[in-house]
Amino acid sequence: MNTPSLLIVDDHPDSLFVIRKTIKETGATAVYCSETETAKNTLRSRGPFSAVVVRMLSQSVDGLDLLKSIRASASPAELPVLLIISDSDLEFAVTAIDSGANDLLMSPFSSQEFCVRTGIRGQSARRRIDTTHPVVPDSADVSRVHCEMPKVDPETFRFSYGVPNDVVSSWNRDELVTATQLDTVLVCPECSGIPTFRHGCEACGSAMTEPEAIIHHYACAHIGAESTFRKGSSLSCPKCLQNDLVAGSDFECVCGAHRCQDCNHVANDPVLIGHCLSCQCRFAASEAISLPIIGYHIPASKRQLRRNRRKTSVRAGADSADS
Ligand SMILES: [Zn+2]
Ligand SMILES: [Zn+2]
Ligand SMILES: [Zn+2]
């Protein structure tokens, strides 16, 4: 599959910072322009692009003009155009959609939002790592060193070495055993269990959120979630109490918020929520605890010793069974 290639037409330093960082992290590629005319030439000479992201209005960028020129030759399905708008150009939002913009991106926006809207959520950011972890203690004879790694216990959903805790403590005290950090994982803040993650409601943790339109009432300038305007089958402004609002003449809708179907909380974006597979607790991903995954390199001589000891104890068990 081809790497997504975007044409970015913006001259705003803050949003360019977020965009450049995101493009780099996801492994997507982009061509940057800061003027409408340069962007038109770039479209002709350096395409095809998978999408165009353009600022609605700034000193040197006229997004509507560029959008109209793109739509003269390419449909929204052929070349998606995403317009970056700020509060001050909300009034152009409806015109932009009518003129063929695929979506609007409210500025300022997060890296995550940019990924979702442009569809560049990185294929190359997903990497498979070698499960054996090529960890080699200094100067050791690799073939003779065994690495004890913790595994997830399917009963408790926690990492375990499969040996009693005092054995792990004895490895920690043993100077012939080397401890190496192999990884860090996020675990449940309550019980250190393994969580799964979902995007959900920041108030209650539910994953059942749906996009909610934001209404901008022209007369009193109030902006709020559509659900706060609902009154039976009509819309009424919760601030100035004007009833039977008519789309277009009384208000405009802006996309971008999400409402929780379980608790009705409205927020800009769903946040990452962890759900512990062990104790079933739900928590914000930012509250998860970083657990270092430690591998213990145990020299062959030590393992031989352990095996001999085990044999001795098995034999001792057999002897006592005979008697
Ligand atoms: Zn109002
Ligand atoms: Zn909720
Ligand atoms: Zn837990």
Key features of this structure:
single chain, 323 residues, alpha+beta, Rossmann fold, 3 domains, five-stranded parallel β-sheet, four-stranded antiparallel β-sheet, 8 helices, flat, disordered C terminus, binds zinc ion
CATH class of the largest domain: Alpha Beta
Find the structural class using helix and strand composition: alpha+beta
| Strand order across the largest sheet | 2-1-3-4-5
The count of strands amounts to 19
Low-confidence stretches: 123-144, 316-323
Return Rg in Å: 29 Å
- Which small-molecule species are bound to the chains here? zinc ion
What's the quaternary structure here?
single chain
Total number of distinct structural domains: 3
Could you state the order of secondary-structure elements as H and E? EHEHEHEHEHEEEHEEEEHEEEEEEEH
Strand content bin: 25-35%
CATH superfamily name of the largest domain? Response regulator
Helix content: 25-40%
Instruction: Give the terminus-to-terminus CA distance.
Output: 70 Å
Question: Do you know the CATH topology of the largest domain?
Answer: Rossmann fold
